[in-house]
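Today's session is about reading a structure prediction critically. Students often jump straight to the picture, but the first step is always the sequence itself: look for stretches that repeat, for charged clusters, for runs of hydrophobic residues. Only then move on to the predicted structure, which in these notes is written as discrete structure tokens rather than atom positions. Here is the chain we will use throughout the hour.
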Amino acid sequence: MDQIDQDLVCIGCGAHIQTSNPDELGYTPESALRKGLESGELYCQRCFRLRHYNEIAPVNLTDDDFRRLLSQISETDSLIVYVMDLFDVNGSLIPGLHRFIGDNEVLLVGNKEDILPKSLKRPRMKEWLRQQAFANGIRPIDVVLTSAKNRHEVNNLFEAIEKYRNGKDVYVVGVTNVGKSTLINQLIAIRNDIKDLITTSRFPGTTLDKIEIPFDEESSLIDTPGIVHREQMAHVLEPEDLKYAAPQKTIKPRVFQLNGDQTLFMGALARFDYQRSNGPVVAYFENNLNIHRTKLENADQFYEKHAGELLTPPTNGNFEKLPKLIKHNFSVSEKSDIVFEGLGWISVPAGAIITGWAPEGISVITRKAMI
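Below is the predicted structure for this chain, in token form.
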């Protein structure tokens, strides 16, 4: 195919289609382009992989590009719907968001609430999420918990948007992989009784621009590109191992009665050294992620011998691509979570001394216990 129509855009993200550079936005192999034109569903390769394989592909956009887009929001009179992943709250944070939204009000949405244990009281979860937002400079007018995947509480979210927007435009913001597009599809379906608008219809704009979806005659629901959070575990995993970092079902807490100087390995992806024991620890990870316990004094040799084999994921072939584990030391004065961003967390008692290990570039942090 010698000539590409410059008006061809990906119906998933809005990027202009091109077939020449696999590393640039909008790339689509010529064979896929032909099939897309025939079927009427034209996706860039990145959106195709995200849609069918849950594969995260890097985007060649700079932080300045995202800041430029966000800064445009401060000049509007609108409602901001800020979508966060309840399983990966810290990985859902947009640094400095409060500086870009101006005087606009923020409705905070905790998505994927179906992943959290049923025992967690939802009112407490909402208050905890509000406190996390406060700590990062965001003062939401309300907090709504939902599951876009299961349509749980989506109607309540729609009603909250209608309540707070007062006829204004609605900007939906969030980092990649929080379920933002699924949520928008659900909201538009409620308004217009149309399914999968973003992924099956054409809208103006590119990935670097906003995509405006008519909400009514006077206002629009405006999708913004997902902000790439580069410190999440998913960005160092191969596609077949992503399932261990993105739970699809309710996670089951795993309790470990640890003595001092014991270690937990989360596959070969992360390591938790418990150096002072003041009670049990509780692990919150994807249910199929293997957790192995060993003595701290043997941990280095155990990892060297078994990583990629007994300790999986990743498998032996993919383990070679995993960055080396870097240690992060913590001493907590209150019950806290040790969070391996994009993978899960371990709840520890007050007074614990811990070392958390994660691949180089992936954050390990401590926060006030969620549960």
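Discussion point for the tutorial: The chain has three domains: 1-53, 63-223, 234-368.
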